[in-house]
Write a structure and sequence with these properties.
heterodimer, A: 75 residues, mainly alpha, 4 helices, B: Arc Repressor Mutant, subunit A, 2 domains
Chain lengths: 75, 176
């Protein structure tokens, strides 16, 4: 009887674990804070509005000396 | 797909923006804890870089130079905010007692809540720890470069990072 009860408990635990996996498909473990932050950063989208604002601001500023661009980017 | 910078700025600048904007935006977002401030900061950082290009001597990488501008900008913004608000002290007891379970995995049940949980934990950290964690999360930065950006030795960076990781883990689990 005790054996049956223990067996039943193990089966219940296995079933519970299986259910948890099914119910939380997005669950994830990270080994470190850095790993978590890298994942977060990789899933962060830069708002497109920033590039549009930059375009406008640069248009008002004017282009930098062309020689600089040649030096930095080999243009 | 629209690429507005391509037509306006020299090709190198548009490429630099594409390569580095995510890292700069993420640093600003998690450091300032405000998407609108992060958007403003990212715009200001790249505009400042554009205007001061002649000051870039190539002694550091472009990425490191942009980080330096971003860190100064974010610190100034944060200081201005602190000057106008009463800010509660970090719970030192949490950081002092951050010794247990720090090597155990950080489990996140729902990925969609990850960003909010990270932000809560980072917000509770001292600004120096927050910045170090955000910089070390960039795999392209060495301890030497992080030390140069934060004006301390690589050994000091390693020591503080050890404490920052432990404190973050405790705070993350507490806020989860």
């Amino acid at each position: 009887m005790k054996h049956q009860t223990k067996l039943s408990q193990e089966q219940q635990q296995q079933q519970h674990a299986a259910e948890q996996q099914t119910q939380s498909p997005s669950a994830r473990e990270f080994a470190s804070a850095e790993e978590m932050l890298r994942y977060d950063a990789a899933h962060t989208t830069v708002p497109p509005a920033i590039a549009q604002r930059l375009q406008k601001s640069i248009g008002q500023t004017g282009a930098p000396p062309r020689s600089w661009w040649r030096n930095l980017f080999g243009l | 797909m629209e690429q507005p910078l391509e037509d306006m700025a020299p090709p190198g600048f548009a490429e630099a923006y594409r390569t580095h904007s995510r890292s700069i935006y993420y640093l600003a977002l998690r450091f300032l804890s405000d998407p609108q401030k992060a958007e403003d900061a990212t715009h200001d950082v790249f505009l400042k870089a554009f205007r001061k290009l002649e000051q870039f001597r190539g002694e550091a990488s472009l990425r490191t130079w942009l980080y330096r501008i971003a860190i100064n900008h974010c610190r100034n913004r944060q200081q201005a905010w602190h000057d106008r608000h009463v800010f509660p002290n970090t719970d030192d007891a949490i950081l002092e007692n951050a010794v247990a379970e720090t090597d155990s995995p950080l489990r996140v049940l729902e990925i969609k809540e990850l960003g909010q949980q990270i932000q809560r934990a980072l917000d509770a950290l001292p600004a120096e720890y927050r910045l170090l964690l955000l910089l070390v999360a960039d795999e392209q930065l060495s301890y030497e470069q992080i030390g140069a950006l934060t004006e301390q030795s690589p050994d000091a960076v390693r020591g503080k990072l050890h404490r920052a990781r432990k404190a973050f883990t405790v705070l993350f689990k507490k806020n989860a």
